[in-house]
Amino acid sequence: MKIIIVGGGKVGYYLLKTLYGKKHKISVVEKDPVKCAAIAEEMDSVNVINGDGTEINELKEAGVEEADVIAAVTGKDEVNLISCQIAKKNFNIPKTIARVNNPKNEGVLKSLGVDNVVCSTAFIANVIEQEVVLGAIRSLLTFYHGDLNILEIKIPHNSPSDGKKIMEIKLPRDSIIITVIKADKPIVPRGDTQIDENDLVIIMSRKDKIDEIKAVLVGAGDENEAKN
Known about the structure:
Layout: E1 2-6, H1 10-19, E2 25-30, H2 33-42, E3 47-50, H3 56-61, E4 69-72, H4 77-91, E5 95-99, H5 106-111, E6 116-118, H6 120-129, E7 137-143, E8 148-154, E9 164-165, E10 175-182, E11 185-187, E12 194-195, E13 200-206, H7 210-217, H8 223-227
Parallel strand pairs: 1-2, 1-4, 2-3, 4-5, 5-6
Antiparallel strand pairs: 7-8, 8-13, 9-12, 10-11, 10-13
C-alpha cells in the first residue's frame, strides 16, 4: 500500500513506527527540517519531504498521484482538512484520514468529504465519562471511532513490569508494544528488550483493554505517584 502521512510530529512519528517495515511504501511531509532529518535517519526507506502538506507540488513529490491513503495528522485542523481535500479532489485518493484537534471541527471535516476523522479529545472525554482513570496512560491517537488506540505509558516506580523483558510481560490480547523510549531515545522493541522505570512505552491496543494494560504496566499503586 502507498501511504502519505502529513505531519511528522509525535502522532505522525508513532504512526510511521506502526506502519514501518510492513511492506508499505510510505512518504511523510513535514515542515520542520529537524524532524525530517530524524525520521530519515531512523527510517531510511521512508520518503521524507521537507515541505507543506497543503502544497500540490510537495504532495506530488510525496507520490500523491499513486497513493492509496493520505493521513493528515498535524496539530492544525485546517492543514489536515486542506491536505485531505487536495488529495481527494485533485488526485482521487481512495482514503483520506484527518486528525482533528478541536472536537467542534469533527462534523465540519466529515461534511467536507474527509473519509475518516480521528479525534483523540473525544476519546479521552469518553474515557472520563466511563470513569476510567488513565493515570500514567495518555492517548495519542484513536482509530475506528475510538475503538483502537495508540497509548503512551510512563513506567512508574513499583510497576509490575519494571525490570522485566517484553517476552516476560503478559499483555492482553489485541495489544502490541510499538516503541520503547529510554532517555529520549526510541528503541524498536524485541522480546528481550527490558522495560525500566521512567521508560515511555508506546502501545497499540483496543479500547476495552486499557484497564488490563494499566494493571500490567502501571500497577495498582498510588495514582498520584503514577501521574508524576
